[in-house]
């Protein structure tokens, strides 16, 4: 960009309300790093813009809160920036558009693209190709997620959905979202140690009549949500380590038991 | 925190204790969120989900897409809470910047959103078709209207198209039939007048 400095300064307003197109935004961000008065002005304009947003406050749809809260339990948070890493606070980067939201219904994860790739993709031909392949990936994810995704979304979106989270004895946490109306529980885990070779994590529903399997947890690390159906208030959800393929009854001490 | 207190509407003493005026201290809450406190995030959600959804909806219009983007923005607030720096602005401004930016990103990448994908997202986002749309009336709303009313028509239109419409300033210039340079300056002048009118601290 060849925009002179004084013209750049005038862009504080457009920058604060996100009215710059990519190239000019990047040029302005470079300018911003050495321009304290611009930074102060942008900061003030953001407060002003926030007031414009507050003035249009709307009651969010029912169920949105549960979906957001459920997603926060599955999402690892960023560590703080340490001294020397500072400077990128307000500019969260071009990668954000592609930021991945693991497993939240209605927001299919998109592949994360490096900043450079995003910049290159601005060229229209490249963009068309990139977006085309993104659509394919997204569609595949949607297709595979849709069958179980709809049932899971119903539980997560149920007005009576409630959340329990508990640490397991194998590290990590298990989160269960239960809806009596939907008679289901959505179980997800995060940060658990992988089971030993030849072993799997198996999910159980424990009710007055006994214990039944609700399936195997697919992978370790961060597992996608698993639906346990027929769960009622007062039941409990347990996870045990079992031989590959699972068993019909638990054979080991549960690594976690949560109330449903 | 001054900005936050005012953001929530009524006239308050700049250094009023949050506990005193009954509004949660969002700066402190975001620090707790950064440490993994989900209860703190629930309070942040209760305070800011309305404006977040409202502004996203204002830009995107489509309820299903708006819900999706609002969810992403709120999740980003939780995920990046450790990066919030109160020295650089209020928690509300930080959050609403994220939300507005995401909405604008969605508009600009619209080509990526095939009809098919939208439909699928709609199916998966339960209950978004029958949104009960209750505009939350606030003191802020009145003051914003009054301050917008005090701008020149060009300033007002430029700000509304850019912020509420999610248009880039070259698009705003085309819509208003004025020169690019004029729009850049009008957006800035208008924001300065809005800022002074609403007594926002810099």
Give a written overview of the molecule.
The complex is a heterodimer of chains A (260) and B (202). With 260 residues, chain A is α+β, with helices and mostly antiparallel strands. Chain A contains seven helices and nine strands; from the N terminus they run H-H-H-H-H-H-H-E-E-E-E-E-E-E-E-E. Chain A has helices spanning 5-9, 12-16, 22-32, 36-54, 64-73, 115-120, 124-157; strands spanning 162-167, 173-179, 184-192, 199-207, 210-216, 221-222, 226-229, 236-243, 256-259. In chain A, the strands form two sheets. In chain A, strands 1, 2, 3, 6 and 7 form a five-stranded antiparallel sheet that branches. A four-stranded antiparallel sheet of chain A has the order 5-4-8-9, with no helix packed on it. Chain A is elongated, with a radius of gyration of 24 Å. The model of chain A is unreliable at 87-138 (pLDDT under 50). Chain B has 202 residues and is mainly α. Helix content of chain B is 67%, strand content 0%. Chain B has helices at residues 2-7, 18-21, 26-34, 38-60, 63-79, 91-108, 115-124, 139-149, 153-164, 169-176, 180-197. In chain B, helix 4 (38-60) runs antiparallel to helix 5 and helix 5 packs across helix 6. Chain B is globular, with a radius of gyration of 18 Å. The model of chain B is unreliable at 1-20, 111-117 and 119-133 (pLDDT under 50). Chains A and B meet through helix 2, helix 4, helix 5 and helix 7 of A and helix 4, helix 5, helix 6, helix 7 and helix 8 of B.
Helix and strand layout, with pairings?
The complex is a heterodimer of chains A (260) and B (202).
Chain A: H1 5-9, H2 12-16, H3 22-32, H4 36-54, H5 64-73, H6 115-120, H7 124-157, E1 162-167, E2 173-179, E3 184-192, E4 199-207, E5 210-216, E6 221-222, E7 226-229, E8 236-243, E9 256-259
Antiparallel strand pairs in A: 1-2, 2-3, 3-6, 3-7, 4-5, 4-8, 8-9
Chain B: H1 2-7, H2 18-21, H3 26-34, H4 38-60, H5 63-79, H6 91-108, H7 115-124, H8 139-149, H9 153-164, H10 169-176, H11 180-197
Helix pairs in contact in B: 3-4, 4-5, 4-6, 5-6, 9-10, 9-11, 10-11
